[in-house]
Prior knowledge:
Layout: H1 2-7, H2 11-14, H3 19-29, E1 33-37, E2 43-46, H4 48-54, H5 58-61, H6 75-82, E3 91-99, E4 105-116, E5 122-131, H7 133-154, E6 159-164, E7 169-172, H8 174-179, H9 192-196, H10 201-215, E8 222-229, E9 235-247, E10 253-262, H11 264-281, H12 286-300, E11 305-311, E12 317-322, H13 328-334, E13 337-338, H14 345-352, E14 356-358, H15 371-377, E15 381-388, E16 394-402, H16 410-446, E17 453-458, E18 464-466, H17 468-473, H18 485-488, H19 498-511, E19 515-522, E20 528-539, E21 545-554, H20 556-578, E22 582-587, E23 593-596, H21 598-604, H22 608-611, H23 616-619, H24 622-637, E24 643-650, E25 656-665, E26 675-682, H25 684-706, E27 712-714, E28 720-723, H26 725-731, H27 735-738, H28 751-766
Amino acid sequence: MKPRKTRQQPPPAVATLTEADHHRLVVADLTETICRFRPDGTFTYVNEVYCRLFGKTSAELIGSRWQPVAVAEDLPMIEEKLRTLTPQNPVVVIENRVYDRQGQVRWMQFVNRGLFDVSGRLVEMQAVGRDITERVLTEQKLKESQQRWRFALESSGFGVWDWDVEHDQIFFSSQWKALLGYEPQDEMPGNFSDWQAILHPSDRLGLISAVQDNLDGRTLSFSGEFRLRCKDGSWKWVLSRGRVIDRDLPGRALRMIGTTADISKRKAAEEREAHSLQLIAEGAPASAVLEAITRNVEAGHPGMRCSVMLVDASGTRLQMKTAPGLPDYAREAIDGMPIGPQMACCGAAAHSGMRVICPDVLADARMEPFHKMAAKAALRACWSEPIVSSSGKVLGTLACYHAVPHEPAQAEIQTVANAARLAALALEREWKEQALRISEERYARALRGTTDGLWDWNIVTGDVYLSPRWKQMLGFSEHELANNRDESFLARLHPEDVPRVQAVRQAHFERREPYQVEFRLRTKDGDHKWFVARAQADWNERGDAVRMTGTISDISERKKAEQALEESEQRFRAVFEQAAVGIAVIETPTGRFINVNQRMCEINRRTREEMLQLTFMDVTYPDDLQDDLNQMEDLKSGRISSFNMEKRNVAPNGDLTWINLTVAPMWRPGEPPLRHIAVVEDITERKQAEFNYRRELAYNQALVDHTSAFIVVMDTEGRFVHANTAFFTTMGYREKEVRGKTAWEIGLMDELEIARSKARFARLLRGEDNPPADVRLRA
């Protein structure tokens, strides 16, 4: 306390303060506890805050040991961590329990620093501590809340599992067993190793790695899609999510819980959709893709039959493209259907560009021209989904039929809507490729005589002309490479590209499709370079190709750039869209959202389109906005490199969502602040749990303090731990006179009443019936 007295002395004395005095002043004003102690635990220094916490003077503490103030169960852990201090790792953070001056248990976080002599021997340790009791209690309340959720989930349609990690025992709910075809009484794998035996071998590595990351604390939770073997030996796709909910003091996982859902139908639909996408990617004809799409929809919904019709050139009728499940007479009846607002389902859908549903064909006047055919073909229900291009143009319709009157379920509508989008993609791809081939044909002809490599092939004689530029692009001089097709082209063509080149050439020769193909040729130094060839053949009167002239262009750099761009975009999209937190790219000068992922939309309860019309100021609760803006100004000025804060966002309906916001710039030092990225985590549940806990605590405290009845809390020895205001007011005692003492020690009862009271207390501890009884107390 001397430094404080020094500051109250006259100015000349202040001027004589040493640097050590200043340091002691700073330490004395800190709110954290600070102490120093020898390796055996003997105190050599304690600050005033430490003394107040434990209710002792520095003289009483210095020379004593710190171990008695720590909870005994924590001592082995504390001492083990302190033994890890070395000159190379001189700091260790420990969270443990202590007894304060009132004997209450408090949670503290101590930053312990080892002080070593020149030989590396530990001579002293310094611990700076802060009280984290409130945080720990809140975490414990949240943990209890999470455990209660398990019971709620078990009554839902999810399969619930509970893994006692410490003893390697797994509990599976009856719903979990039912997912795999087991009865509730059937035995299931009892530990993690046994459970792996029913996990598909191809899925083990990734799932086990995800689970281990969560066990080790590298992730907050895990989620995985994998296959499990059912009771009948088949494999079923499931989605499982889980997290560690309990850890010991060193951080080892003790318990993990989670849920499992059946996603086999979704996976089957995804596989069928992937097949259609593969056909599109491989350039299959649109007719083949459309037939595959309709068959996939029918396979996913037994009893449903489908057809695809396309708008004809006049734009007034629909032409049948594919209907694998309909009889010939039904296809002929609806082929050429007029387009209009009062036409049958497909005609009306093509006109409006919107879904048209007819639950009962025979009861719908618009379907009257098709009643007889529908009755004969058992087409009692129909709905039509328009096939719409990316520009909004209606290309055709995808119709679905049922044998009985039927109102489509949401799952059916979603499946058919996805199928219609795939159909539009296939049609647009083919039409664009046709337009591209025509354009490239014109381009190829225009390029003759340019600086690209030129070639001319006499198909009849086999002679080939290669321009000097053609040879130069492969690293040869004009006279080094013979004008021979086998040596100059076929022998240098990459083996993987041979089938593609042959297919394009055959299509050009036989169907006169434009010739354009990309391939790799081996250069003089042995490397391969990418080229695109464009050519045009000449045919004789019999239709045989007799000559072919074209160009090649070096596209190696373009291919590298495309590959790098694709890989970069895939990585970014995967991270951005699949992140478990909300992510947004924001225009810094205006605060407008430029891009948001799905989780950001969910947290703010808005669609992506709505979010992109707003600024972050629009969704921020007014009371929290100024703090956010102040930190943004610090970020833009370069005073901080990033910032983190908790704030509230406002949903469209006025509800508040608590979020944990992290903001980082997307500009480099010296660049203008144009964009920044915001990462958002929804912490509403945590905030609500904290609020509920504090409100309940305040309510109970008020209830106890304001009741007229005596409320007394005792420990198992009968000693007073707490008494309410009514007790002290009525009985005339002060708290320090009764705390830690029994009722018979402070003279509240006579001898007879003491005997009765002890007997009742003993029955209570044994759990026996202990009815209320009148007690005589002495004030």
